[in-house]
TrEMBL record:
The lineage of its organism: Eukaryota, Metazoa, Chordata, Craniata, Vertebrata. Residues 71-267 form the Deoxynucleoside kinase domain. GO terms for cellular component: mitochondrion. GO terms for molecular function: ATP binding; deoxycytidine kinase activity; thymidine kinase activity. It comes from Geotrypetes seraphini (Gaboon caecilian). Belongs to the DCK/DGK family. Its EC number is 2.7.1.21, 2.7.1.74. One of its GO terms (biological process) is nucleotide metabolic process. It is an enzyme of class 2 (transferase). It catalyses: 2'-deoxyuridine + ATP = dUMP + ADP + H(+); thymidine + ATP = dTMP + ADP + H(+); 2'-deoxycytidine + ATP = dCMP + ADP + H(+). This is Thymidine kinase 2, mitochondrial. InterPro entries: Deoxyribonucleoside_kinase (IPR050566), DNK_dom (IPR031314), P-loop_NTPase (IPR027417).
Length: 283
């Protein structure tokens, strides 16, 4: 392991390892199909990899047992997810839930996010255990709104970030196995269903630029290779759909553009984003 300025650095792209997942992976999800939409957004829909809808009897329901639509905004670090949520929060009467990053930066005076960036092999499991809990709390939080828009999901926490730690050699197999067992139990027993994924598709270069502009203290250590690895895992999961189950139809928004153009795309896709039950545009 390389050491830089006293900090452990990352080895991001170690060989691919996929044991331990209770989910069928490549063979099942390869039936995903895609089409180009006139608005410039691409849609990917994979019926066979969706979670059952409604959830099977016996599964713990969201608090209150109410039925609501859940839209998850997925994308690389600094791709513009929070900005997207802020835009829809201003213009729409829906519940908007940002990622609980403040919790990840401060749990009883400790900063697991910062620790993870300083030494991923030591603190990766700590951070991801806490993220899995806080994302579960997000999914199951009671709400009086019929629609919820969330930043990321418990699914991407597992399929992107835990996976990256494991594949890059920064998470021991035993830690990965424990988190996977927890995740599989949650999937099988708690309703964490999603109705639409909006994937903000950016180049890693764009994210690197935005990350530097945002200048979050803990993220100053992030190298370009890390954003490339996270980008690659998103592409496999949501575009090629050949790594892990995709829990909902995917609407792809090309998000490298400046804010004015992005907002135009949000407007053009407003109905698709806010009517996830309308599958007319799906294959
Ligand atoms: N389309 C855009 N063009 C230029 N800068 C953007 C755009 N979208 C977001 N930003 C800026 O990039 C940074 C990261 O955006 P943010 O929404 O916080 O990303 P995320 O929530 O995905 O990490 C912020 O400083 C934000 O103001
Ligand atoms: N499961 C996760 C989710 C997020 N992170 C990190 C990545 C960023 O540094 C930070 C917040 O993400 P953003 O909203 O800015 O994309 O949390 C992680 O390590 N694991």
């Amino acid at each position: 392991m390389l050491v830089l300025k006293g900090l452990r650095t990352w080895s991001f792209l170690a060989g691919s390892r996929y044991p331990g997942s209770a989910w069928p992976t490549r063979a099942l999800v390869q039936s995903g199909r895609r089409k180009k939409l006139s608005s410039g957004a691409r849609e990917h829909y994979c019926t066979t990899s969706r979670f059952p809808d409604p959830p099977p009897a016996g599964k713990l329901q969201k608090s209150g047992g109410e039925t609501k639509s859940v839209i998850c905004i997925e994308g690389n670090i600094a791709s513009g997810k929070t900005t997207c949520l802020e835009y829809f929060a201003k213009t729409t009467n829906i519940e908007v839930l940002e990622e609980p990053v403040a919790k990840w930066r401060n749990i009883r005076g400790h900063n697991p996010l910062g620790l993870m960036y300083q030494d991923a092999a030591r603190w990766g499991i700590t951070l991801q255990t806490y993220i899995q809990l806080t994302m579960l709390q997000r999914h199951t939080r009671p709400s009086r709104y019929p629609m919820r828009m969330m930043e990321r999901s418990i699914h991407s926490a597992k399929y992107i970030f835990v996976e990256n730690l494991y594949q890059s050699g920064n998470m021991p197999e035993v830690d990965y196995a424990v988190l996977t067992e927890w995740f599989n139990w949650i999937v099988e027993n708690i309703d964490i269903s999603v109705d639409l994924i909006v994937y903000l598709h950016t180049s890693p270069e764009t994210c690197y630029k935005r990350l530097k502009e945002r200048c979050r203290e803990e993220e100053k250590l992030i190298p370009m290779e890390y954003l490339e690895a996270i980008h690659h895992l998103h592409e496999e999961w949501l575009i090629q759909q050949n790594s892990f189950p995709v829990p909902a139809p995917v609407l792809v928004i090309e998000a490298d553009d400046d804010l004015t153009k992005i907002i135009r795309q949000y407007e053009e896709n407003r109905t698709r984003i806010l009517t996830p039950s309308n599958k007319q545009w799906c294959l």
